[in-house]
Amino acid sequence: MCSIRIEVGRKRQKMAVNNVVYVNEGGLPLNAVDWLEKHHQSKAQERLQMIHDLSLKQGSLVVDAGCGPGLWTPLLAQAIGAEGHIIGIDIDTESLITAQSRSNGSWYRQQVLYKRATLEQIPLEHGGADIIFSANVSQYLEDPVAAFAAMAPYLKRGGRLVIKDIDFGTMRFGGVDPMLQARVFQARERWERDRCAHDYAFEDSWIGSKLAGYLRAAGFEDVEEKTYRIVRQCPLPEDYRFYIQGIVEWFVCENAPYLSHHDVTCWLQCFFDTAYSVLDVADFTCEETEFVVSGVWS
Ligand SMILES: C[S@@+](CC[C@H](N)C(=O)[O-])C[C@H]1O[C@@H](n2cnc3c(N)ncnc32)[C@H](O)[C@@H]1O
């Protein structure tokens, strides 16, 4: 049973993670840049593997659609070699400025151009791209099929659209009361279905397993789905701990309308209690599966 209530409010002042979710100038709920960076570092090994598995051709022209702070640029640049080029597009100026300053002075700076644009209106002639890559963006698209179909003409014949995203239906915390987890996850999933009606922007954090169907519906062929199971256990690397604490807070943000106050308190206490956090318990594990789905445009 959970009994501490008031203390959690006090402890939240000390949390490592703040403003995990905010609304950017495009009106989208987004993860803060420092959280995105830690998230990226915490899954560096798997993300490197994801790009490796795409077998990108040397000299390709790649569009990084919804590039954010440009965290995938060096991975893509390495995969396409010095002759390849990347156009990073995003609707958020702050992210683009961060991406640009990250690339200034880097080994890949000559290969990348960042531009403010939407996924649907890429600043490139039709038939120009070998690959359109988009990571962690589809979860914000109200109509992913329409967006994927709008991106298709920018690809060469035989070019590929590659969408990478999360699916929180695959997330499990070992060492946390399974019934509490189930209630928290179900409440969030239900809230994501309803939140648009309450003036929040669209979000589907359960999208990963739906992507293959969406690509087929948008007219892509030879759709391939690759899954990456990401498991971490105690002792957790610092960047992964930061990521998990961000996720835990995010599950109960926006006042968690479909969760009881008691469950919210227990959930936060479980992960943030300074005297006893489940993150420090020897048998703690976290697992989730991320999806990379590609389709050919012919
Ligand atoms: C969660 S961030 C992911 C950033 C980056 N791809 C990564 O994985 O680190 C989502 C990004 O998608 C951008 N975005 C969302 N919808 C977009 C749209 N319709 N057109 C262009 N960018 C979009 C946001 O501005 C944001 O920078």
What would the keywords be for this entry?
binds S-adenosylmethionine, eight-stranded mixed sheet, two-stranded antiparallel sheet, Rossmann fold, 10 helices, 298 residues
Number of domains: 1
Profile the largest sheet. 8 strands, mixed
Strand percent estimate:
15-25%
Number of helical runs? 10
What form results from the Cα inertia axes?
globular
CATH topology: Rossmann fold
**Rg calc:** 20 Å
Distinct compounds present? S-adenosylmethionine
Which stretches are poorly predicted, pLDDT < 50 over at least 5 residues?
Answer: 1-18
Order of helices and strands: HEEHHEHEHEEHEEHHEHHE
Q: What structural class is derived from the secondary structure elements?
A: alpha/beta
Termini distance? 57 Å
What is the H level of CATH, i.e. the homologous superfamily? Vaccinia Virus protein VP39
